[in-house]
Amino acid sequence: MSLSNQIRTIFDHSLANGHLFLTPSSLSILREYGIDFQVRLAAALGLKPKTQFNGAPKVYRNPFLPPDPNLTVSQLDTHNILLNKFCIMKDHLLITTKEFESQFSTLNDKDFKAVLHVINELQKPEGLLFFYNCGSKSGASVNHKHIQMLRLDNDDSIPIHSVVMASNSNLHQVFQLKQFQFVHSCMKFNKETLTNIQLEDAIKKLLIHSKQQINPTLTTTDILSIDPASETEPNGFISYNVIFNSNWMMVVPRLKEGYQDLSFNINSVGFAGMVLTKSEDEFNQLKVIGPMKVLNSVTFSLFNNSL
Q1: Is the pTM of this model over 0.85?
Q2: Among 190, 217, 222, 191, residue whose Cα is nearest residue 204
């Protein structure tokens, strides 16, 4: 059975038997700075149990050790492929390490090997969006290394895809988007020849470029050498988000998780142009504020940091 068929079969079975919960949502488009932000309203999302992750040790059951057999799609040498128990979209996968590794640790060649396995098995890389929430201010909720994946209709369904691809930067060269006024770093790839080693090299370069804009005294070791066994957030750690597909990767360091005293908590997909609201009131406030102002408020300004 193909991976696509496995995903659909296990999803349907788990949904029907109460092992998985799909929250209904409506989709609206808010256009700013040439980006068609996708804003979902999921009023029932408050039914999801909340796990607050602030970097401190907690007594809770790791949902990935062991993984729920009702949500397990496939097992690789070093990673498990799971369905997300609480989802807004049907094709929402989690790629988790089989053994415990901290969600503070940097993605490595083994993580990206698992990602490429998923891409190859699905046989249609278009529309796949991978993301990694790293640190207490990134939108992370579980301190066990896991990459998430959404499957959209095509690459152009990812709001910022066309903006990134329109850049005239060379492949494997770090660049920034003129639409964003916050610290971030991007890189484009040749999807036909993409390897896990290239992806590992990319995230290292993007993390170094981004974090040294915030603090030029940080060394490569400071930025990349995070203990994978760490159960607490390292002192001075700068949270960040990673979003990528077969064509490009972006890293965004985080200043805070949410917008002012409102509950617009942003994770990685916010920087792909996808924002979630949990009530009509939140949705209406977002229309007034604008998605870009929310993104600017939770990140480091380009104009207040050394470039």
Answers
A1: yes
A2: 222
